[in-house]
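I am still learning, so would you mind making up any protein sequence you like and the tokens describing how it folds?
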Amino acid sequence: MRNPLSSKVTELQPSGIRKFFDIVTEMKDAISLGVGEPDFDTPWHIREEGIYSLEKGKTVYTSNSGLKELREEICTYLNRRFGLQYDPYKETIVTVGGSEAIDIAFRSMLDDGDEVLIPQPCYVSYLPCAKLAGGVPVVINLKEENEFRLTPEELLGAITEKTKVLILAFPSNPTGAIMNREDLEAIAKVVIEKDIFVISDEIYSELSYAEEHVSIASIPGMRERTIVINGFSKSYAMTGWRLGYACGPKEIIEQMTKVHQFAIMCAPTTSQYAAVEALKHGDPDVAEMREAYNNRRRLVVSSLREMGLSCFEPLGAFYVFPCIKEFGMTSDEFATRLLQEEKLAVVPGTAFGDCGEGYLRISYAYSVEQLKTALERLKNFVERLRNNI
């Protein structure tokens, strides 16, 4: 019998995050700081709107692009928060999470052999999605000395005649890095000069602690060459509702809608009604969660530094990315032993690219009590390593 599988798929490596989660679920008293998911419940008024839509029998398909009211609220929100202006009817699409938006953006923009610049460490889906769309991933290794920000020099050094798209994901998963307006202006200058496009994943835009988030699409000359991707999972604690969106030039959104139409039909209807409520009245919820995350961020960073672990200060998302190179172990070895000896799960930096070697991703989307217990376990492990016990 012939091989039923696609080599394009079988050659992909499975996510490096899942291995540790599978072990944790079977381990008694284990603590995981590995999940990139808010520990808050979806705010009640948002859940209530979803329930109400079900009670009213609003369970049919929406338009392929999403509820008209939701697209209008998305555009109102982006203008109010980040100064972005989009047409809700021609430049906006509602997707099944931000992940689907990334996938269909690649599929709509790439021809076979087009190069996609992917700064790493980064979210695990970019590279495989680019490959599945026929693109050729070109990795740019970000450096801790630059606080894991992309520099114009690094960008210029990676661009070739085949380069078509740059993935820009800030605030960053896994590093917590941000890029301010000045940083983005320098990147935009190169993007415009070299005539490439940007897919800007801004799913953590509301979780920026030092200053307000800036979208690269707001930089002059960038709106027409940027797809802005965002969603509801992180800001509103709506991970399981599976809802995201993309905004950008009409001609790109039109093709993304075509792919979405054939592959998905439409995003979940109940989730869309709940999202309207989130955008209309959810600002206080977002502010409350952001303040809680910021307090936890300070706790985790200060605790890691007290242990003597090198850790640059993350100013966005809900992750820290400490360096463990002093111990002479790979990230995977460190994380495996930490789980076995202290029943504490973190994610090896290599799950987010080879340049993540020597680092760990620790999520602080957990209660302060859990974080304190977890940090005590990490401290015990680090002290044993230093004392060669």
Remarks:
- The first strand starts at residue 31 and ends at 32.
